[in-house]
Amino acid sequence: MSPPPGADAPSPSRPVHLVHTGAALRDLPRGTGARGVVMTMGALHEGHATLIRTARRRVGPQGQVVVTVFVNPLQFGAGEDLDRYPRTLDADVELATAAGADVVFAPSVDEVYPGGEPQIRIAAGPMGTLLEGASRPGHFDGVLTVVAKLLHLTAPDIAFYGQKDAQQLAVITRMAADLNFPVEIVGVPTVREDDGLALSSRNRYLSSPERRTALALSAALFAARDRLAAEEALRARAASTGHPAQDRSAALAALGEDRAAADAHAVAYAAAGPPHGPSVARAAARVVLEDAARLDPPLVLDYLALVDPSDFTEISDAYEGEAILAVAAKVGTTRLIDNIRLTFGAPRPETTDHRSATATGASTTEATSSGATSSGAPTTPQGPLGATR
C-alpha cells in the first residue's frame, strides 16, 4: 500500500508511518481497536519509550499507537530554550518504532498554527498560575492550547502522559473533564536513571559537575518520603504500646528504642495531637536542597511545594490523603523539575478525581518527556546523597 500524501514511506525494517499533515494522518487506516496517543516534543528517551510501550499494551494488537513530535513555541517563555531544544526526528522515529508505535505524526509549526500564533487560546485558570505557572507565566496556556489541537488532529481514544510533569498532568486532566473531550487521560509513573535523576530531554545539557548537583532534586524527594515513613512507623509503634500519650517516651524505651526515645522530635511526633507529617516531609527535603545550594556548581532552588493533587494549592499540617511534593531548580543554565507522591494519614475521599468522566490521571510534551517504570513498582536501592530511592 502506498503511503497517503504527506507521509514518508516506511522501509521493511521500520514499518512505522511517518506523517507530517493532519490530512495524511486521517487517511491512514485506524484499525479495529482503540487509538492511543503519546504527545512529545521529540528528543525521545527511555521515558518516552515507556509511555509508548504502555500505550501499546493498553490498545493491544488491534489498536493503533500514534506518537506526536512537535516542539510547541507557545509554551516557551522569553529567554527559554526554544531555539536550542534538540530536534532529532530520525532517532525519534527509530525509538518510537522499537517501542511499538504505528504512526509518528511530526507536523510543522504552520500545520499546527496555520496563519501564525492562534488568536484564541485555552486558559489554564487558577491552577495555571501556581508553581510552574508562576515561574513561567503563560506556559500552561500554551500547553493546553497545543494539547487541545493535537487531540483534535489525532482523535485518540486514550492519551498517555508522564507523571514527572505533575502539574501539567493535572491541568490536562481538568481540561479534558471540564471541556468534555471524549478521551481517557492516563498518567504513567516517572522513569528514573540509575542514579535517581528523573529522565528529561534537558538532562543532556548538564555537565558532569552539574549532573552531580542535580541529583539533589531526587535525593530531596526520597529523603522526604523516607523520613515520613520512619515517623509514621514510630508513631504507630508508640501508639501500639497502650501507654498514655504522656508516657510514650518511656514506652519507646521499653521497646528497646532508647535512641528514638531520646530524639525530642521523634517523641513529639509520637505523642498525642495532630499529625505533623507534611512539615516533617518538607523539612527533610529542604535540608538536602540547602546542602546542594552550597555545592560547586550550586543548585538554585525555584520552589519546593507540598500540594493537593486536585488543585496544586499548598496543604496544611493537618492534611490527610495523597499529596505531591514538587521541586524545581536550576543547575547552571538548565532548569529541572521533579516530584513524588506521598500519603499522609488515612486516605481521604477525593474531591476531584484524577480521572474525569473520560480520564484516569495525567501529565504532555517536555513539557511530556517523562514516562514510567515498566512495572510501576517502587524499589529502594541506594540513591544519591545517601537517600534510598
Rg calculated over all Cα atoms? 23 Å
Please report the total strand number as a whole number.
10
Shape: globular
What would the average pLDDT be, to the nearest integer? 82
- Tell me roughly what share of residues is in helical segments: 25-40%
Largest sheet: 7 strands, mixed
Give structural notes.
This protein is α/β, with parallel strands linked by helices and 389 residues long. The model is unreliable at 1-14, 267-274 and 348-389 (pLDDT under 50). It is built from twelve helices and ten strands. It is globular. A seven-stranded mixed sheet has the order 1-2-5-4-3-6-7, sandwiched between helices. 35% of the residues lie in helices and 16% in strands. The protein has helices spanning 22-27, 46-59, 89-99, 109-112, 132-135, 139-154, 166-178, 208-240, 248-254, 258-262, 264-270, 277-292, and strands at 7-8, 17-19, 35-40, 64-69, 103-105, 158-162, 184-188, 299-307, 321-331, 334-344.
List the defining traits of the structure above.
single chain, 389 residues, alpha/beta, 7-stranded mixed β-sheet, 3-stranded antiparallel β-sheet, 12 helices, 35% helix, globular, disordered N terminus, disordered C terminus
What's this model, at a glance?
The chain has 389 residues and is an alpha/beta fold. Helix content is 35%, strand content 16%. The strands form 2 sheets. A 7-stranded mixed sheet has the order 1-2-5-4-3-6-7, with helices on both faces.
Produce the secondary structure layout.
Blueprint: E1 7-8, E2 17-19, H1 22-27, E3 35-40, H2 46-59, E4 64-69, H3 89-99, E5 103-105, H4 109-112, H5 132-135, H6 139-154, E6 158-162, H7 166-178, E7 184-188, H8 208-240, H9 248-254, H10 258-262, H11 264-270, H12 277-292, E8 299-307, E9 321-331, E10 334-344
Helix pairs in contact: 2-3, 6-7, 8-11, 8-12
